[in-house]
Amino acid sequence: MRRKLLLLALIFLGVGLGTFELSAGPKDDPAAKLPFNKKMKWANGLFKAGSFYTAEEYYFQLKKEQPRNPYVTYMIAECMWMTRDYPPAAEYYAEAFDLAPEIYPEAPYKEALMRKQNGDYEKAIERFQYYIKNYKGKNKKVKLYAQRHIEGCQMALNSLNDPGRAFVKNAGPNVNTAYTELSPLPLGDTALLFATMNSNKIIEYGKDKRKDYVSRFMWAPKEFDRTRIKDTFEVAMKFEDGKFNDNKYHVGNGSWSPGGLRFCFTKCLEEDSLKIKCKIWVSEFNRTRGVWAPAKELDGFINDPESSNTNPYCAMIGKKEVLFFTSNRKLQSAGGFDIWYSVYDSARKTYRRPQNCGKKVNSWGDDITPYYDNRTNKLYFSSNGWKNIGGFDVYSAEGGPSRYTNLTNLGFPINSPADDIYYIQDPGKKDNAYVVSNRLGSIYVKNPTCCDDIWRVIKEPSFYVKGIVLDEVSNEIIPEVVVKMADLNTNVLKDTSFSREGNFMFYTPMGKNYAISADKPGYISGRTTLSTTGKSVMDPDNTTLVTIYMHKSPMNLSFMFKTCITISIKEIFNLILMGPSIHWLIS
């Protein structure tokens, strides 16, 4: 009947796959000419099918015909909630409540949620308090949830006044597109693996082939400027290892086993109402042939047939290899999507029956995207069920794999009023990380917070010192020199370099004072100092250039000190005539 333009917002949580259709315009759209009741039925059908953008368009047409229709107004707000268009959604919920407060008593609660996710915390608190005061229903949990959101807003205001030491920046257009990116996985400190639809154009359903818009793995190397690896990315490329991508499935959530011989990932398909159902697959590396074997579904213990199972992450905890994942299975669930784990049996090469991570981690809401850092023994994950400052917030919990303590919201700026998921730390010494978010600043097609981008969490900008060692007299480079960098305050050695060509480069974390010295036989040591105490996480990456000067030691220095007490006056006079370099030693 009409040309359909498809806009997919993939979260790959198994929670849902929102498919948004954009009208081709009333001139070639017969549905736009339908009478009011039939158009209403058409719009409701689209909403039920998950085509929220298209449904929203028709509801707006209906609202022009009946501006004070409370149902139409309310449904516009519902469409905007589903497409994460927070500010106008809040306004339309408020309008629907003003038009029909007895029909939509829950509208102030939803309005408050939208204001909270837009960062309007004080107004959100006001509306939550109004809802608690005026709610007359029997469901006591509703007031409990509203009170928890009030506490989350208060926590957000406190965190804004005292944010964490980090700078969060968009990973840039070489990684992110107008559609959703997800599941970042650092490849050392030089590249990033992630999943994306890799499109900046509106996809036309029925015209564009499925293989052109399913999510797939891609990777992007970091840029290099001859002296150091930068925190920006080159153009993304297809990830060809193992042929994990599939033209029929949405693919993402990659994770290697600790030994690197297995690769777990997710394959997902749309179901009724465009909900998405995911399964976890695994591929094993054939060391004899040097190739990845065809991927296989994990067994029914992991891929519960009645559930969506996704977000695999492999980690080593003690001597056990553990697979964390997310599932909305009902048995032993705390509610919604929970985080589960399964221990790998290396003898049988199978995963054991999975266990729930427990109520210290899993909430009444959805708990998703687990990542385990075995350097700190912390589980990182996202949740919308604990006290939060937005929608999904990133949390950490100590322990694992079954028992946890010290549940902590990471706060601003890692979390935002919007949704923040897929937090993962860099594998190296630096404390930087990645997070996926639809916060303001994301690249988008329809509205500023519709779609998720990969963001870089910079807790430690890249500060380097680059230098050269020169002869003080000739100004020539001194080769084969040992350069050392130490903490100026504690004298603790931080780094050493043997330079054949007389140059050096050190990483200089901020907040320190450094002493850099150069040594070589036959030369008196040279030295310089450098301070990064004035640096901030908001500062860009920077390289400081320094020069260390050295001059040659006098000849026969030890002999002269031993014999000068018996040398004759005449010989002393002769030594003085040798030049100023000797004169200062015996004067």
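Second entry:
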Amino acid sequence: MNKKLLVLIILLVSLNSCREIGNNTLSNTQAFDYKALKTTKNINIDSLYQISSLCKEDTIKVSDLITIFRLSIKNKPVRNEVLDEALQISRKINYETGIANCLNRKGVNARYQHEYLKSTKLHKEAIEHYKKSWDIASYVKNLNSLGVAYRKMNLEEEALKYYYEALKLSENLDDTKSMAMALNGIGNAFINLEKYNEAKKYFELALNLEELNNNLKGMGYDYSNLGEVYMFKKQYDSSYAYHIKSLKIAEKARSKDNIAIINNNIGLMFQHKGEYERSLEYFNKALPVLKKFRSKRYLSNTFTNIGIDQIHLKQYNKAENNIKEGLQIAKDISSRENIILAYKALSDLYNHSNRFEKALDTYEMMTVYKDSMFNLQSENHIAALEVKYETEKKDQRIEQLNLETKVQKSNIINQFFAIGLLVLLVIFFIFYNKLRLKNKTLEIEDMRNNIEEYLVQISRLESDDCRKNKIDITAKLEKYGISSREAEVLKYISQGMKNQEIANKMFVSLSTVKTHTKNIFDKLDVRNRIEAARKAQGLH
């Protein structure tokens, strides 16, 4: 009752959000809330469409029409004409985001109908419009969907290219949901390439993200994927443990289609292990549910694998019927992988039942599909030509992205902090060094000034008092054992003269002056010329 009331309120709000403009044309001011509407039971799609049809053709109306289309997928029947109208309006008003989103939706819808070639064309067309759009989040979803479509056609390298691009963009957006989707897509592509260790790495990264977000549905999907990896690695206990984890989540969510898919995977695991009766038990659990939900890809796989189990159990007539049923469904949806599986199973069946000619014919049919990327008469071969798929590249190692979300961001911040601190230290060192040099220069300048002051004082004293006190000074100098020639040298030192100047003044050699200077220093017990000048001044 509360949900019905909610629907009524939403409809009233939507009606009130339209205002009259003229000629009875209405303009929407607020788009439909898809998240609120999708949880409502028995929603009236026609009523919502009638509301939107009264409104002006603008971006909000396009958004509403896309929402109505999405709701129709769940509530049935699917309203493809509504999406067509949204695309038409988007093109009319040059709304790039609307065009891209409509093409993306059409691509997903085509994939659900197993029209994989059509799906890839629509998604690639959408890319060109997303490049002119602001909706990066939807662009990432489109890239992931394109990867899925290529993977369904077994074009793993094309799929990987778009998955990696989606992963890079979703990392920039910090969109963990899209990151997990891309990681799972990459892992599944590596499984098809039989690179199981690579696949395991990506599935574990996806599982870590889902656990951080506490997304049980995503965790269940990752558990199932890891179970498949361990199956191919022949680590059956680990495979079974992961599948059971996945199954418990699906049972808790009461998701019958997921339960059937997981039972199918468990059946395949027991088949690889060689326990065919137990494998058959799980396949038979999955079969009726897959028929009900019309999951043709899994249905084809289940029919064929039931036949494979029956071959090993020597139930040849039942096996033939089931394998042919699986083969026909695989051909209907152009599933190359399932076609190859069915032909190989038929060849084994005919070989076991001694129908060797049929065994050879079916083996040759399997070889045709296996050795050529696609049947020459099929649309899938056209797709292979368009993307110029190169089989020799399948053995090349795909470079793994270094995905460290929050840890990586933290490391970057720490690096920037360390660099900033280092820059500050360098600046401080340069400033400190300049300041130290400046202080040193000032100190030297001050010393020079003091020397000059002392020398001036000495000169003044010598000029004024030297004659009067010459006898006294000479007498005082004689106490230190200084000769008259050494006294003359000391006088010139006190006047600030250099050794060469003194030599020139006294008409003696430079070495003679140096000898007199050394004797003066020794006799006066001084270390340098300044101390000698000071001591000479004190003798006055």
